[in-house]
Amino acid sequence: MLSKSVVIEPCANSLVWDAHAGVFPDPAVDLNLLDAWPDNGVNYVSINVGFDVMDWQQTMKTLAAYRHWIIENSNRFTLIGSVKDIVAAKHAGKFGVSFDIEGMNALNGDINMIGVYHALGVRQMVFAYNLDNAAAGGCHGIDTGLTDFGQKIIAEMNRTGMIVDCSHAAYKTTMDIMAASQRPVVFSHSNPMQVWGHQRNIRDEQIKACAATNGAIGINGMGIFLGDNVVDNATLLQHITYLAELVGTEHIGLGFDYSPGVDVDIGEILKSRPDYWPSGQGYDTANIKHVAPSQLSDLSNQLQQHGFNDDEIRGIFGENFQRVARACWGE
Questions:
Q1: pLDDT tens digits for range 243-278
Q2: What angle do CA 231, 22, 227 make, to 5 degrees?
Q3: Which domain holds residue 290?
Q4: How many domains does the chain have?
Q5: Helix (H, G, I), strand (E, B) or coil at 170
Q6: Domain annotation covers residue 264
Q7: What pTM does this model have?
Q8: CA–CA separation, 13 and 316 (whole Å)
Q9: Could you tell me the CATH number of the domain that includes residue 105?
Q10: Is the model's pLDDT at 4 over the cut of 60?
Q11: Residue 87 resides in a domain
């Protein structure tokens, strides 16, 4: 069984939840890197198996490899299909993992692929990864809004039991998505634009619309989205405090976009596709930093020092995303 070296005191009897990890989707990735989460008191993470830069075949290859690895290591990890599974995994001393996909190119134009991905462990999907696609507009695209195909996708995701994720999508598109979904919607890893003015961050209107669906916004831990490549807890607190004052702590979560120990030069990847990662947005920053799960215990202490109570901290650290998951996945 896993040995959790850190217990985050306010969350000892609840779930600590990271809504999105930035592990680069590749069948060759050694998923032993996932230990970075449970070793620091986290109970569940969603990891990316594909994004719009890739074709659907690459997504399926990664999904197959990751799924096989987790099942082969079931003494330490549990493939999650429901909130009940995460609770059971915690009680068994195991770490819960499910999958997400960033962008609808993975559907290859076929709505039926949603059910296939769901059956294989995907529980969350982004509509567009930075650029426009057949379903939606991306944050670095023209912002086409939600297309007819996108409308059908929302209905199928709501029916199947998959979380609708607005991160990486454009302003008009996200407002369309939140108006159309019959279930709570999330920004799994997005920060308030008023704190740091990056195109990947989100406006107050988007934050309020997400809260109106009873959804949650996960704080993104990538340094160029938090500030000038800064990842200290003081900067995290600025983003959390802003959201709390705007919509309340019940709509805040964690989505650190963290990728530990991966032998891939992220900077080289970003430079290779300037269409998806355009100039002038900090993607060419040397040594882009990330908030790590190891910061969570201190973050909890700092939240307490800033007047957040234990209930609010438990919400931010997991209970708010747990609420959304129950509404979308069922028990």
A1: 999 999 999 999 999 988 655 556 666 777 888 888
A2: 25
A3: 26-41+49-75+101-329
A4: 1
A5: coil
A6: yes
A7: 0.95
A8: 14
A9: 3.20.20.140
A10: no
A11: no
